[in-house]
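Q: Second attempt. The first request was missing the SMILES, so the protein and pyridoxal-5'-phosphate are both included now.
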Amino acid sequence: MSEEKYKYLLSEHDLPRQWYNVNADMPVDPAPVLNPKTKEPVTPDFLSVLFPMSLIMQEVSTDRYIDIPEEVREIYKLWRPTPLIRAHRLEKLLDTPAHIYYKNEGASISGSHKTNTAVAQAFYNKADGTKALTTETGAGQWGSALAMACNFFDMDLEVYMVKVSYEQKPYRRIIMQSYGADVYASPTDRTIYGQQLLAENPDNPGSLGIAISEAVEVAASSGGAKKYSLGSVLNHVLLHQSVIGEESLKQMDLADEYPDVVIGCVGGGSNFGGIAFPFLRENLKNGKSTRLVAVEPRATPTLTKGVYAFDYGDTAKMAPIVKMYTLGHDFVPAPIHAGGLRYHGMSPQICALYDAGYIDAVAVPQPETFQAAIQFAQTEGIIPAPESAHAIRAAIDEALDAKAKSEPRVILFNLSGHGLLDLSAYDSYLQGHLIDDTLDISPEQIKENLPEVEMG
Ligand SMILES: *Cc1c(COP(=O)(O)O)cnc(C)c1O
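A: Got both inputs this time. The predicted holo structure:
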């Protein structure tokens, strides 16, 4: 038996020098981003209340490649390039002819891919003179990544953390505080919006949409001292995540294979866009035909059951209106454990590409997702983040489909994070408490609360 190869590693020297900007190759025209009050296209002035000009320029750039600043590359080197692993032991368990590879973003120093954009956003804010950032966090992965990055660049950070998570998941709060961030349970009495909500219901458990509204309000009313930072959805966030796919291309090359299918879970779309867009470029420019599959929970089926329409990015209607697949800005998600996948909307770039048929989407139920996570943990040894487990479920389904058809298939999925701080989710699964919470919602119900926009 010839010796099997497991890890495909790159050296620091192979760390990408540029991010890939899918806007340069978009086969479909993006819809304009609208001001939530006037419903007219946003101006850079409106956005500059929240973001530094350098990130606004990246948001609208159509340059194919954007240089990664040396200061950012130096910090990336603390954990990048991340390993690409061939999941031999999972393949054997499934007895499949498919080859399964995964990119391990859980190897990052905060435990997920979110560090890739956190470091970049902190760098550009610092360079533009921002004194402090505000942000929201659900389960806490984004908050911990940004807390680490702000600490490296010596900037203050205020994190509005969804109250139920703040109370039920203290560990990530402690991580953020260890990096020096101030963490508040949202809704807070620090904002007008939070005060209103607390007056109506002092026990409001909070939601990601509410926490976004609070973080936006604090930055917008700070007279320029504080800016706001978002961990997903926006074009510049997906841009920063493209290092995942660029490294994967080189590593698949080392393995002397090319993926037939690339899979990632989608909350706001950043880790999926990060791994998939460089492969989309190869499809569009270099005659490849890799299937790109976005995986979401059946409890928040944004792409598979949402409507493609203009909607607000947040609950309080303060964030810009964008055209995206949405479950409605007032959607209240089931309290599933994959906190990072509960957002009502999705990256407009991913939505446009999905609508035009360039990417596929599937929705998977919770119990089957955790079953896949356990199979992965028991074969590959890594406890995956509940979010990443959705990608594993879809990868296993691909491998079983290849087996049923007795055909070879090269599968690559993104392991967006590890789950060592999500053990209560595993506990619920192991005790049989996880239920199939497939969302029952009709397009008519979603459309009831969407903003009226002329250009629909
Ligand atoms: C936040 C998060 C996600 C979902 O966000 P995307 O922007 O869709 O990538 C997925 N996995 C992990 C581990 C996360 O922390």
